[in-house]
Amino acid sequence: xxxxxxxxxxxxxxxxxxxxxxxxxxxxxxxxxxxxxxxxxxxxxxxxxxxxxxxxxxxxxxxxxxxxxxxxxxxxxxxxxxxxxxxxxxxxxxxxxxxxxxxxxxxxxxxxxxxxxxxxxxxxxxxxxxxxxxxxxxxxxxxxxxxxxxxxxxxxxxxxxxxxxxxxxxxxxxxxxxxxxxxxxxxxxxxxxxxxxxxxxxxxxxxxxxxxxxxxxxxxxxxxxxxxxxxxxxxxxxxxxxxxxxxxxxxxxxxxxxxxxxxxxxxxxxxxxxxxxxxxxxxxxxxxxxxxxxxxxxxxxxxxxxxxxxxxxxxxxxxxxxxxxxxxxxxxxxxxxxxxxxxxxxxxxxxxxxxxxxxxxxxxxxxxxxxxxxxxxxxxxxxxxxxxxxxxxxxxxxxxxxxxxxxxxxxxxxxxxxxxxxxxxxxxxxxxxxxxxxxxxxxxxxxxxxxxxxxxxxxxxxxxxxxxxxxxxxxxxxxxxxxxxxxxxxxxxxxxxxxxxxxxxxxxxxxxxxxxxxxxxxxxxxxxxxxxxxxxxxxxxxxxxxxxxxxxxxxxxxxxxxxxxxxxxxxxxxxxxxxxxxxxxxxxxxxxxxxxxxxxxxxxxxxxxxxxxxxxxxxxxxxxxxxxxxxxxxxxxxxxxxxxxxxxxxxxxxxxxxxxxxxx
Length: 664
Fold this sequence. Notes:
This protein is an alpha+beta fold. It has three domains: 7-91, no CATH class; 99-159, no CATH class; 194-458 and 599-663, no CATH class. It contains 25 helices and seven strands. The chain has a four-stranded antiparallel sheet with strand order 2-1-4-3, covered by helices on one side. The model is unreliable at 1-65 (pLDDT under 50).
């Protein structure tokens, strides 16, 4: 029986003579099935007839049915009842959904109240992390639901009420362009200078080297700008100020430090769930092959979660709000603002897919900004890899957030806008919607996409390390032929060349002189190979520093001796001597994290051209002519972020000890 046909169950009486006495008129229906029900009276039986509406055929029934027919008829009757239930649900679907939502909400409220009573029955305790996490989750959910409800039901009324005020402000801005365009930025610059003088210059003048580095980069970019006379200083100045505000909140206030540290710890804890799957698939010794069996499963897991969040629409909301903030404050266009915001969470390939509907309307300057944003920031998926190397999660997150406005600022300085943009803020609604039909399909798509990403990373690592080793062996051979060999001279290697070539850039970012060569080497390795190899080296240096700090103990006669020739620390004790470990200061590590925190390397230019060229085949010439400028701008954006970190990072920077009150 077709499920679309409405059914009726009709009871009729059948006597021994073959006549049917029906309880209701069934002339309008068609008997689809019937089954008998025996009575104590041997001369009659009850016949239950399944009648389908919509036909004028006469009813035909038989007074007896076989056992097989009875079973079939019962199934038909059950199907008819299911159709009735289905039709009832369709008529009352909205009410049922609301009832389920309110029931779940009520259960959650009861659960939340009970957990608060249970956890704080002896008084409020800020060190009760699970309870604090639950409070934070509920506060965030309440804010989002309230914002959604207000916007949906009262948004138009609020906008109508604010429109006269906004109109007045707009008229004032148009009539006082000088004040808005110059006085306000000058005021912000003066406030910035005051903070630098009071908080940096008077306490540690050596950190002003980082400020000099910012001035040097801005000056060079202005001199070599594609159109120096067309530079709009608003996005440049306000972009750098946004960078400074983010850095100050994260590095110099306990609230910002604790917030990002808490988020970093939670992400680290979240990613550790992959250990169960790695152990199940690869065995107990999976950590013996750290990169393949420990790190890459994290990439699959994280990419799956990002895909699910995009399917649910969570990421779109976050990205759009960040893009709106940049658009309003910096005055950048819709396309480049949205791209910069998306790059905080996704890589250059995924971001291009998200903003694909907007790409065809972008100007050449906007395309340059899109590529710069892709080069200057870190994708969340790759960020998870660097966390596995031991790089602090809070610094990685803040580096990606800070580099987003820096990328726009440097891009607008290096390649100013000379055309009128064709993309409006309303075009955001045209962004690609998720293609998946369910959350399970979204999770599967994310996992499969991660496999391609892993293959790309693995292929690049194998190729880059092989080429680097070949290059180093070749350089070492030529150097040895000219007398450059130990013990009198260090071996001639790619890293040695980079340590001298990038030395000035490392110095003007505020790196301590003793660590400039190590930071310069990391910058060179990242630029000419890839960021994964650079961060793995940085992670090893950080682990060495932490070990050396725990090793040094005069009471146990455990000391350290610095070897100037090899630039490493020798472990000394009564029972052990000789192992030499390279390490950097904590300040140098901080500067290095921000300096190499991006995809800006030579290999990424080919990826960028391949992705955007496939989407914009008619603009390959524009892409090819600007991609290397964008790669340079992305590097300098990261270096500007490192300069600000070097300017603010110091003895006054927040750490677990100074923020102990907030943490506990």
